[in-house]
Design goal:
Layout lengths: L1 H20 L12 E4 L14 E5 L12 H8 L12 E6 L17 E3 L2 E3 L5 H27 L9 E5 L11 H20 L3 E6 L1 H7 L14 E6 L2 H7 L11 E8 L2 E6 L1
Parallel strand pairs: 1-2, 2-3, 3-6, 6-7, 7-8, 8-9
Antiparallel strand pairs: 1-10, 4-5, 9-10
């Protein structure tokens, strides 16, 4: 009887181990995969199992809100949080610098005091910095805070990591090192605003796009030392390999990598 019971226990343990090894089962609730979502996922059933989530505050442009932000924030805060280095709910902001076409936009600043001197409405590093500061301020106070309040989640910016989404599909200045420096100033303005509110800042891009938009970053820049979230992988193995790529800025470290699988943006914590 004792030997028979032992055999039954061995079989039961083997079955349990097999179940735990199958992805997508209820027992896989401790997945270490993260997801990022934004306005393209409005109305979709979001992944039930996730270790952490990054939600886009904007609707593809720095001047537009994500209409599903509240719903997605509530979903993000229900992530398991089993990856110690990745907060369960994180955010990202769209970025841009339309200084070269400032006559075509209504949000380009006319005044402002910045680390680059006063902004007078021209296409300068000062006005680029002011633009970044104002876009971040608007996204945090006029878009994020009301949505978070409605969702019943943390409304204090200090409670989040804010990733700056830097991609060539948005409007940037180009053609010279001076243009890239102005783009950098915009990201510095956004960074300084978020930090002034107690938030943590990270940088999302690929090494190629970052080089095209921003170029080199001096060690004295507010961007230096910030963590990098690298895009571009098509598989988990590719995402893991990207952890070994150079960080986007000096003193930084690649802490998160993105890969696309099954139509979802998934993320691997380095």
């Amino acid at each position: 009887m004792r030997n028979r019971l032992r055999s039954v226990l061995v079989v039961a343990l083997a079955v349990a181990a097999a179940v735990l090894a199958v992805p997508g089962t209820a027992s896989a609730a401790q997945t270490t995969v993260g997801f990022d979502v934004s306005y393209p996922q409005c109305g979709k059933t979001l992944p039930a199992l996730r270790a952490f989530a990054v939600v886009g505050v904007n609707g593809g442009l720095a001047t537009k809100p994500n209409p599903c932000l509240g719903t997605q924030l509530a979903w993000a805060w229900k992530s398991s949080g089993v990856v110690p280095s990745q907060p369960a709910a994180q955010l990202y902001l769209n970025t841009a610098n339309p200084g070269e076409i400032r006559s075509q936009v209504s949000t380009w600043p006319k005044t402002g005091t910045t680390p680059y001197g006063p902004c007078d409405g021209g296409n300068s590093a000062a006005c680029s910095y002011e633009y970044g500061w104002e876009r971040a301020s608007n996204s945090v106070t006029s878009v994020f805070a009301p949505a978070a309040e409605v969702a019943g989640v943390k409304t204090d910016p200090a409670g989040y990591t804010w990733w700056l989404d830097v991609e060539t599909m948005n409007t940037w200045q180009s053609g010279s090192s001076e243009a890239r420096a102005r783009n950098r100033a915009t990201l510095e303005g956004m960074t300084d605003y978020v930090v002034s509110r107690g938030g943590k800042v990270g940088l999302y891009s690929t090494n190629s796009q970052w080089g095209q938009i921003v170029g080199s970053v001096p060690a004295s820049s507010p961007l230096a030392g910030k963590p990098s979230w690298l895009a571009g992988a098509a598989s988990l193995s590719g995402a893991k390999a990207n952890c070994a790529k150079p960080a986007l800025v000096p003193g930084g470290k690649v802490t998160l990598t993105q890969y696309v699988q099954g139509g979802w943006d998934r993320n691997y914590s380095c």
